[in-house]
Design a protein that fits this description.
single chain; about 210 residues; Alpha-D-Glucose-1,6-Bisphosphate, Chain A, domain 4; 8 helices
């Protein structure tokens, strides 16, 4: 449990705004350091063989302008690719999402650190309407990205990677979900969210990611 909570504490979370082709969007932004060389981190997030070991299988035309699809239903187009420092993709989920192109983009930025480490930044900008953002706040996507960064950290450290669903159902995964939702509540407050709204959003997010056992 300790290493999982340390991984959670390693991330700096903010909520902001950005412009995407479809209009004004809100952002969830995650920043942390990985104890790995920048080329290793870049390869881990762009190599199909390595991606499937810690994230999900990916298929498609994996070059600038090409389209990709992940095993979980996420798909999009590669908008920018500047090895080993910047990757930007459109990020859609489900077949109905194709009716609203330009509404969601994910950008990953890497910078080499002074000690052979890597500064990692992920920004997800999305035009999100009712009920997602008002009900769940930034935790709607933020908790999921926290889980992704946790898996990447374990992979880069050479730890065993369990299935995402298996981890989320485990006691440590459920505690991770609760604490991640609370951390995104703090980011929401820092961005000017009303305390009552933030508290309700954290509760809704927690119930979504950590449902009562059945």
């Amino acid at each position: 449990m300790k290493d999982v909570l340390e991984e959670l504490a390693a991330v700096r979370r903010t909520m902001g705004t950005a412009s995407v082709p479809a209009g004004e969007a809100y952002t969830v932004e995650l920043r942390r350091r990985y104890d790995a060389e920048i080329d290793d981190v870049w390869d881990a997030i762009t190599s199909p063989e390595r991606l499937q070991r810690w994230f999900k299988p990916v298929t498609g035309d994996l070059r600038l302008g090409g389209k990709f699809a992940l095993d979980g239903g996420e798909h999009g187009q590669i908008l920018r690719c500047e090895p080993p420092r910047l990757l930007k993709v459109s990020w859609l989920y489900g077949p109905d999402a194709d009716a609203w192109p330009g509404t969601s983009e994910v950008e990953v930025r890497l910078a080499a650190g002074p000690a052979g480490d890597t500064e990692f930044e992920l920004i997800h900008a999305a035009v999100v309407g009712e009920p997602l953002l008002p009900t769940y706040g930034p935790g709607a996507g933020g908790v999921g990205w926290d889980l992704v960064l946790l898996a990447l950290g374990r992979f880069l450290a050479g730890s065993e990677i369990t299935g995402h669903e298996e981890f989320e159902k485990s006691p440590e995964g459920r505690e991770f979900g609760r604490r991640s939702a609370a951390a995104w509540g703090q980011a929401h407050l820092a961005a000017g969210g009303e305390p009552e709204h933030v508290a309700a959003a954290v509760e809704a997010t927690t119930k979504f990611y950590v449902p009562d056992p059945t």
